Amino acid sequence: MAKLLASIAWDWSLVWTAIGVSVAYNVVKFFYRLHQVRSMVREIPAKYGIPIMPHSYLFGHLISVAKVMMKQPSDVFGGCAPLFIMKAYPELAECGAMYMDMWPISPPMLTVFDPDMMAQFCQEPSLPKAELMHTEFGPFTQLKDLVNLEGQDWKRWRGVFNPGFSAKNLLSLVPTFLEEIEVFTDHLRSLAKSGEIVRFEEPAMDLTIDVIGRAALGARLHAQTKHNGFRDAMNKQVYWLETDRLPRTIVKLLNPLRPVMMWLHNRTMKNYFMPLIEQSMAEHTSQDTGTTSGGPKTIISLATKAYLSDPALRPADAKPTHIDAEFLNVLISQLKIFMFAGHDTTATALAFAYHFLHTNPHTLAALRAEHTAVFGPNPATAAAQIAANPSLLNALPYTLAVIKETLRLFPPVGSVREGQRDLFLTNLTTGARYPTAGWMLFSCSFASQRWDAVWPRAGEFVPERWLAREGDPLHVRKNAFRPFELGPRNCIGQELALLEIKAIMVLTLREMKFESCFGQGAQAVLGDVAYQVQGSGQVTGHPKGGMPMRVRLRTGE
Ligand code: HEM
Ligand SMILES: *[C@@H]1O[C@H](CO)[C@@H](O)[C@H](O)[C@H]1NC(C)=O
Ligand SMILES: *[C@@H]1O[C@H](CO)[C@@H](O)[C@H](O)[C@H]1NC(C)=O
């Protein structure tokens, strides 16, 4: 007995020692990394003569940044911060890029807003995605998805999905989109009847998730009319990711339920996809090789077809008729990323566009005039006309200009890449060189697309710039428009998103009136009460308040 007690006591001392060693190790590691980061930052002015914000050894740039951000509403989206800093430090802005040390809150970051310097790490060359993406998206897709894959794996999968985004295939999907938009317009009519103010991004998300369901899965989710278990699990899974603002992320990480919830949502999503995948496999195996299946190509059908026909996607011993477990994991990851990336950004873009149309009545009038010119005076006939000839959606230059101008002012995401040892960004005018080794490179479309060095009337909503020809002062310069990013890792879904938003606009804006309602005393950012925020569980910039909106029918106008 005494022996046993002694051994327990001995065990405890071992435990305490282990804890002590581990704490000491982590404290040392923390200060070592702190020293490393802060020294690297101080080299920037010392060795390269590049100006940086006032820098504290202990706090890095946290104090300088906090001072700037304190002048903005506390909920403003983090992706917007570089623009406020540029305005506060014009001598830094002039460089076209800005070194920011917010470690340990975020990795040391070189924020770039000069379009030609953005091209030097997103276009030629296109650097790998930043480590931060792996931390954030690992638990969602295990990084086996098109946004996070790299190298040969990425290339192969991009090749598999590209045919789904050809102009021809997208147009063949349009009739399915119209069915979903019809559900949306019905819902808007009932909102018009009740006169209530809604968070417009919510019905917009319901719609865009239904649309991407058609394009990715070839299935109807009915998210607009019913509770959808898959959609619910996906949103909740995204909620648990580390993509949130820091204090909220820490609380989530400490929550002991997190792994359980993530496991459950992961399983729900898989269970939703499984029958769809099996059905798609069955369709492809039952067909004679060589015959193409009728109907539009969906993400799921492209992937199963590639699996059956491309041995490079299968392990050597896998039978083509049997779904290999590893392939299944990759396919599920791909479906998750398409379902997520394919709806969130499109819905928020729609919400901001409708806000701009409300605050710019001349633009709205010109847009309606274009729709009438193409589809005739009766708005009720447009749906049938588009169904019969979807390419009519490509004859709406002013509508496209409105969408592009919206995405210029409110791009929902930027790209983050991993800096490289031998890579310097170069200011093409002065020849100044900016080291990238050890830095996360942030292609900040928000700051770039509102930078007055690049855009005349940068802060104003001017769709006309998108129709301006070369020589016109409003003409848009090369590399400047990058809400979808540019280069090989650009958005594969951009044409789909544009087509979708154009169709929604044609089918709503002449019948209805949309009024964003922020109420008296609402705070403004950069002169607009509608600004980007990042709410709990959101990954991208969302409209403030979900974009409060009142819908009215125009019959009595
Ligand atoms: C207005 C709507 C959209 C915006 C603003 C947008 C923006 C972007 C951006 C900035 C990227 C680059 C991300 C990075 O570098 O990490 C991207 C990539 C991607 N987007 Fe979109 N997107 C939109 C709509 C869509 C839609 C509708 C789909 C699906 C059909 C989609 C699927 C993807 C995928 C799969 C990638 C990764 C492409 C690759 O790396 O090969 N997006 N998007
Ligand atoms: C989530 O599901 C995928 C298969 O769909 C699996 O590979 C992965 O390990 C699961 N992750 C978690 C955290 O349960
Ligand atoms: C390069 O540096 C100059 C001088 O600092 C600055 O005016 C300019 O905006 C920078 N970018 C480019 C592309 O020239």
Structural account:
The chain has helices at 2-48, 62-69, 81-88, 90-93, 115-122, 131-141, 151-161, 167-194, 201-217, 229-239, 246-254, 258-286, 299-309, 325-341, 344-359, 361-375, 382-388, 397-409, 445-448, 494-508, and strands at residues 97-100, 109-112, 197-199, 415-418, 424-426, 433-435, 440-443, 512-516, 532-533, 542-543, 548-553. With 557 residues, it is an alpha+beta fold. It has a domain at 137-413 and 495-553: Cytochrome p450 (Orthogonal Bundle). A four-stranded mixed β-sheet has the order 1-2-7-4, sandwiched between helices. Strands 3-11-8 form a three-stranded antiparallel β-sheet. The protein has a two-stranded antiparallel sheet with strand order 5-6. The protein is globular. It starts with a helix and ends with a strand. 41% of the residues are buried. The model is unreliable at 288-292 (pLDDT under 50). The protein binds protoporphyrin IX containing FE and 2-acetamido-2-deoxy-beta-D-glucopyranose (2 copies). The site of protoporphyrin IX containing FE (HEM) has 26 residues, from helix 9, helix 14, helix 15 and helix 20. One 2-acetamido-2-deoxy-beta-D-glucopyranose is lined by residues 139, 142, 262-263, 266, 270, 329, 332.
